[in-house]
Amino acid sequence: MLWFFFCIAVLLLGYFIYGKIVEKIFVINPNKHTPAYTMADGVDYVPMSKTKIWLIQLLNIAGTGPIFGPILGALYGPVAMLWIVLGCIFAGAVHDYMCGMLSVRNGGASMPYLTGKYLGTPIKTFINILAVVLLVLVGVVFVASPAQLMSTITMDIFGNSGGISVDNAEAVGTAASNTAATALGMTKETILLAWTAIIFIYYIIATLLPIDKIIGRIYPVFGALLLFMSIGMMYGLVSNHLGTGSVSFFGSIDGLSVDKFFSNLQPKGDLPIWPLLLLTITCGALSGFHATQTPLMARCAMNESEGRFIFYGAMIAEGIIALIWCAVGMSFYPDLTALQDAIAAGSPSKVVYDSSIYFLGAIGGVFAVLGVVVLPITSGDTAFRAARLIIAEFFNLEQRTLLKRLWIAIPLFVIGFIVSKVDFQILWRYFSWANQTVAMVMLWTAAGYLYRYRKFHWICTLPAIIMSAACYTFLAYNQIGFGLDYQLSVYIGIGLAILTTIAFFLFVKRERIAGDPDALVVDSKVDFGNRS
């Protein structure tokens, strides 16, 4: 248990110490007007308080990533916690902060624009396509998981499964998976379709309306559910460990020791830590999806001084959520083989449902699951919004009028519906690779900015090199790529990462004088009383 709280303490120290270092290297300018004021349009550029922006940012970036990813990563053992802590502080939070602040500095620009400015037009074209593909995949993936969980809750509460006790998680899961059972006069398949349609309708509304009309108003409620889920699961783990419960911290791996942090405990035995762990646990450590979401909140920030709290801080909070669920994965079942079997029987959502009901009882468990449902929904809606804005920026289409927004939104949702028919497991593999490849490019973009203005660029360059090697190796080794021999794939990944680094230093031009001119701008004072 002490190891778990030690990891959380390291994350918090990372915010206060390393986050401050990153902020000093970037050099904020509290005297420069932000896009929330200079480009205010009442739709996407709307000034909001930093507390509200932080909460929306957390909900935007979280998705099911910091829950499902760490549960899957727990199969590797404590090394998953090591990646969450180190990846979050030195890669993920730096990635999010630099993306957010560069967007603020560039009129709320999206990631493709930033990539084009600091790395060149060819990379911008590539990332424009990849970012939109990733966002559509996110939107589709984040429809399926909440719809399945809501269907399970509906069948549990209103189903005719014969008086199953909701305190018996295994019995509930079995009853909910019974295709012959009905609830409210509907079969499980019909209920799943209904929840999918409801979520898609919400996506459409949230994508088209001004950001402060829906997202800015209902997210505080969603945030309360998220906090209840996170605190509740941590309380359940601690109380069971200290009390008479059958679950103890890291019971699935017979306790925690230093040597286990560097061991591969995967039950399957043929899944290497490098690079698979880095692409299994994304949200909670490092995620390219965040680069598509962060500019949305950069357009609402009221001052550059708020950046570390909003962008770096939200990522640290997500890392804590990831640690909680990683600990659940390594504690709830008798061993990692049982965890693997549970995932195989019902995906990570089964682990979420079983553990929530066990730790928090019937009512508390349902609320905890609702907190998990909130995460993908609040990421999926902003995924489609971000895709709309990236396309609009690329084609230079204004988005003040509803009709112009519909021209982009309707084709996006049609494509999303078609893609949703593809097998979920196949979608998830492509999503994982696309996600971390976008993260890699964003890290190189931030490194390009720092290198151009003669700042200490290694805070972004080093994680960019590591992620380049991981993404190249994954593409060479995994079946969605070339399916090559593992050792050969590692050599290819390292070789291509070296070539990428050489190209970076050859083609990114440096300014003669150190420092970003925007850091010296002094604008007239802004009335900060207009907070949403």
Strand-helix topology:
Blueprint: H1 2-16, H2 18-26, H3 35-38, H4 50-62, H5 65-73, H6 79-105, H7 111-119, H8 121-158, H9 169-176, E1 182-183, E2 186-187, H10 188-208, H11 215-242, H12 273-280, H13 289-298, H14 307-329, H15 336-395, H16 402-419, H17 424-452, H18 458-477, H19 486-507
Antiparallel strand pairs: 1-2
Helix pairs in contact: 1-6, 1-14, 2-6, 4-11, 4-13, 4-14, 4-15, 5-14, 5-15, 6-13, 6-14, 6-17, 6-18, 7-8, 7-17, 8-9, 8-10, 8-15, 8-16, 8-17, 9-15, 10-15, 10-16, 11-14, 11-15, 12-18, 13-15, 15-16, 17-18, 18-19
InterPro entries: CstA, CstA_N
Transmembrane segments: 80-104, 125-145, 192-211, 218-238, 271-289, 309-333, 357-378, 406-427, 433-451, 458-477, 489-508
Pfam families: CstA
List keywords for this structure.
single chain; 532 residues; mainly alpha; Amino acid/polyamine transporter I; globular
Strand percentage lies at: under 5%
Radius of gyration, CA atoms, in whole angstroms: 23 Å
Give the helix tally: 19
Distance between the termini: 40 Å
The level 1 CATH classification is Mainly Alpha
Give a description of the structure.
By secondary structure, the chain is an all-alpha fold. The protein has a single domain (1-160, 184-451), classed as Up-down Bundle (Amino acid/polyamine transporter I), CATH 1.20.1740. It has 19 helices and two strands. A two-stranded antiparallel sheet has the order 1-2. A hairpin with a 2-residue loop joins strand 1 and strand 2. The two termini are 40 Å apart.
